[in-house]
Structure formats: structure tokens, C-alpha cells
Design a protein that fits this description.
- Strand 1 and strand 2 form a beta hairpin.
- Helix 4 runs parallel beside helix 6 and helix 6 packs parallel to helix 7.
- The chain is globular.
- The two termini are about 40 Å apart.
- By secondary structure, the protein is α/β, with parallel strands linked by helices.
- The chain has ten helices and ten strands.
- Strands 6-7-8-3-9-10 form a six-stranded mixed beta sheet, with helices on both faces. A four-stranded antiparallel beta sheet has the order 2-1-4-5, with helices on one face.
- Adenosine-5'-triphosphate binds next to strand 2 and helix 1.
- The site of adenosine-5'-triphosphate has 11 residues, from strand 2 and helix 1.
- Keywords: ATP-binding, Cell membrane, Membrane, Nucleotide-binding, Transport.
- It is a peripheral membrane protein.
């Protein structure tokens, strides 16, 4: 099977050669196949965001290789990668333009990867499409096409950000703790929506989370990162019936460490 993303021996070293040298990623190897929805979990400073930044091209890669659809993108710019890789951040303010309306934001998303120029005007012909897409979110946003996004709640904004990130069917979608800033109920709504968008469009996704329950409940494969290394990699069949306690045991056996990070939401 042709992979979507292949990471080979990826290292990231910050402030190399100084007293503050921090070897964060220590030889990450990872192959992501089409349609996989991977959840990645790990304690503070494990290197999750660094890994996402390396994939997105927000961080240069000096050691290791990254291939997207069999093409070496290790040296490709973040802008070029953004045509195929979309990303949703934790902060709902980062994904949308708050002074623009819902439909203007969607029009921007339709132009992803193109020169946006000054042509922000929403084409009338796009409105039925936007309405239909917004309807799938089930949040009544199809009635708010001309509302400024800044007036919407965090959950509504994250839902729109998700829609924008998937509107042009990216090869890979990166979700960077995208529900962590939301209250538990809204977080669940946005997570369910995420799952629906990913499965309906058969997208390939990579989601960082601090929440072990979310990591187990959603996605088709689970990865644990510890001190810059992948220590646990659980495929779909095994993940289905796994409990949090079993996951913690697996982590302990593989890393030789205990999961003591209180930032990991255990909910046991
Ligand atoms: N641009 C940078 N310059 C220097 N150090 C950095 C940079 N980005 C991250 N780091 C350091 O790399 C380490 C890993 O950080 P990273 O954000 O990847 O971890 P994480 O697993 O996402 O943690 P968290 O769950 O706390 O967000 C940390 O020690 C962090 O301080």
C-alpha cells in the first residue's frame, strides 16, 4: 500500500552546541497509511508539537527524511506543504479570521494553496455549497453565513476551522490538541464532528491529545511518544478493546518509566 507520510530517523535538536542543547526528537520512524486516524499521546515535553511542526514544515529538518505521497518534502517550505497538509490548533482564534464572516472564511479556505490576492468577495454560486457543508456540522451555522466569526463561540469556531481544514480534502490533517481549550461538553461535540468529517471523507489524520480517553475512543491507531521516541504503537484491532490501565502498563513496559505526568488526563 502506498503510504501518505513516511518519517525516517527524524531528529530535532534545539540550541545545538550550546549549554541549553535540547535533543527533543531522537530518531522517529513513522509510516502513516491512507485513511489512518492516528492519536498521539505523551507527557509534557515529549516532543509531540515538535513532531507536528516538523511534519507541517514549521520547523526545518536537518537530520532525517520526510516523504509525502512518496515525494521527499524534507526541505519543502511550510507554504508549499500547506497545499496538502492542513492543521488545526488548540486556540480557536488561530484557525479563522475573526473579522470576516463565516462565508468569507469558507471562501478563503476554498482558495487554499492559491494566490489569494484581494478577491475576498464571496461568489453567490458558492453559497449553496457553503450552506450544505455547514449543515453537516449540525450546529445551525448554515443560518449564520454573514455573521462575523469573532462573534461565535470557541466550539463553533473550531467546528468552522475543521470544515475549512477539510474543505479541499487535504492529504493529511494535523490536529494539535484542537479541543483542549473547550469545555468538556463542547470538546465532545467537536471531537465527534472531527471523527465524522475524517471518516466521511476518508481522510488521513494525526491528532495530538493529552486526554487518554480521547486517544482510546477516537482514531484507528494510537502512538505514545516519550522523551522523543515512539514507545508504543497500537493498531486498530488491538486499540478497540484496550483500557486506560492496559495502556499505562504497555507504556511502562516499553519505556521503563511510569506515566506520572498529571497533564495526561487519566479519568480513571
Ligand atoms: N522552538 C523551540 N526552541 C527551543 N526549544 C523548543 C522549541 N520548541 C520546543 N522546544 C522544547 O522542546 C521540548 C519538547 O517540546 P514540545 O512542545 O514538542 O513537547 P510536547 O510533547 O508537545 O509537550 P506539551 O504536551 O507540553 O505541549 C520542550 O523541552 C520545549 O521546551
Amino acid at each position: 500500500m502506498k503510504s501518505v507520510l513516511e518519517i525516517e530517523n527524524l531528529h530535532q535538536i534545539f540550541e545545538e552546541g550550546t549549554v541549553n542543547e535540547n535533543h527533543v526528537l531522537k530518531g522517529v520512524d513513522l509510516t502513516i497509511n491512507p485513511g489512518e486516524f492516528i492519536t498521539i499521546i505523551g507527557g509534557n515535553g515529549a516532543g509531540k508539537s515538535t513532531l507536528l511542526n516538523s511534519i507541517a514544515g514549521a520547523l526545518p529538518t536537518k537530520i532525517g527524511k520526510i516523504r509525502l505521497n512518496n515525494k521527499d518534502i524534507t526541505k519543502q517550505s511550510i507554504i508549499k506543504r500547506a497545499k496538502s497538509i492542513s492543521r488545526v490548533f488548540q486556540d480557536p482564534k488561530l484557525g479563522t479570521a475573526v473579522r470576516l464572516t463565516v462565508e468569507e472564511n469558507l471562501a478563503l479556505a476554498l482558495k487554499r494553496g492559491q494566490n489569494r490576492g484581494f478577491g475576498l468577495a464571496v461568489k453567490f454560486s458558492n453559497r449553496p455549497f457553503f450552506k450544505e457543508q455547514l449543515k453537516t456540522l449540525n450546529l445551525g451555522l448554515e443560518k449564520r453565513l454573514t455573521t462575523e466569526v469573532g462573534l461565535l463561540s470557541g466550539g463553533q469556531r473550531q467546528a468552522i476551522t475543521l470544515l475549512m481544514a477539510t474543505l479541499q480534502r487535504p492529504d493529511l490533517i494535523l490536529l494539535d490538541e484542537h479541543t483542549a481549550a473547550l469545555d468538556p461538553k463542547t470538546s465532545k461535540t467537536v471531537m465527534d464532528l472531527t471523527e465524522k468529517l475524517i471518516f466521511d471523507q476518508q481522510l488521513t489524520a494525526f491528532m495530538v491529545t493529552h486526554d487518554m480517553e480521547n486517544a482510546l475512543q477516537y482514531g484507528t491507531r494510537l502512538i505514545m511518544l516519550h522523551q522523543g521516541r515512539i514507545v508504543v504503537d497500537i493498531p486498530a484491532e488491538k486499540k478497540k478493546n484496550l483500557t486506560i490501565n492496559q495502556l499505562m502498563d504497555l507504556f511502562q513496559q516499553s519505556s521503563g518509566d511510569e506515566l506520572k505526568d498529571d497533564q495526561l488526563l487519566l479519568n480513571t
